[in-house]
Design brief:
- The protein is mostly beta strands and 223 residues long.
- It has one domain.
- It contains one helix and twelve strands; from the N terminus they run βαβββββββββββ.
- The longest helix is centred in the middle third of the chain and has 8 residues.
- The protein is globular, with a radius of gyration of 16 Å.
């Protein structure tokens, strides 16, 4: 089963199959080593700090650069998706951007989003026992060229800083990250951090630049 669908944002299900759409929600049972993997798109969040600690500021230093290549997947510490029980969740690449991500060892888990030459590919390195993605990263391309990642390191579902909705506006985009406090139930993170990005171009190629972070409390869910 793939998760190709309408492109709307929906939550991962509580069972092993993924829902249609392009969602990364917050449901993994345990964190993997991917959240502390080294390298661009895999740099350590820092000691024992929560993986979402990089979002606790209004501005962040840029981890992307015009000379950095697409980071290779690090599948150490988690059950890799290819060949495992969750292999059916992987999407086959259909374009040059998601093929580049797949060729770097990542498993594409959501339909690529695109607008005005900007493409975002969401991929992972593994899954938990419920087939919820671990080692998640968002890769941004402009006119087919890699520009950078949405986070300085891969993310695990159901942990602080997991990627949520991504919105494209051409040369700018925004990404939501779910924020957990120590007392939040795993179903319901209490805050959302939204990072704004811009795409800069030069003769060396495009680069994705985070331009600001805004964190707000998540409205309570009424049953």
């Amino acid at each position: 089963m793939s998760i190709r669908g309408s492109g709307s944002w929906r939550s991962w299900p509580s069972a092993g199959r993924l829902a249609p759409g392009i969602v990364l929600a917050v449901f993994a049972a345990v964190p993997s080593a991917a959240a502390a993997s080294p390298g661009p798109g895999g740099s350590e969040a820092g000691g024992s700090a929560p993986p979402g600690a990089w979002l606790d500021t209004q501005s962040v230093p840029n981890w992307n650069n015009q000379h950095g290549g697409l980071p290779k997947a690090d599948t150490r510490g988690s059950d890799a998706l290819p060949g495992g029980p969750c292999a059916e969740q992987i999407l086959e690449p259909t374009g040059r951007e998601d093929k580049a991500v797949s060729d770097a060892g990542w498993s594409v888990v959501s339909e690529p989003q695109s607008r005005a030459g900007t493409v975002v590919v969401t991929a992972a390195t593994g899954a938990d026992g419920m087939c919820r993605p671990l080692g998640v990263q968002g890769f941004v391309f402009l006119d087919g060229r890699f520009a950078g990642t949405l986070s300085p390191h891969p993310m695990d579902s159901r942990t602080d800083g997991i990627l949520g909705r991504v919105q494209l506006f051409g040369a700018t985009l925004r990404a939501d990250f779910r924020r957990y406090s120590a007392t939040d139930p795993l179903c319901c993170p209490s805050r959302t951090s939204t990072v704004s990005y811009r795409l800069e171009t030069s003769a060396d190629g495009p680069v994705l630049v985070p331009s600001g972070v805004e964190t707000v409390r998540t409205p309570p869910t009424h049953k």
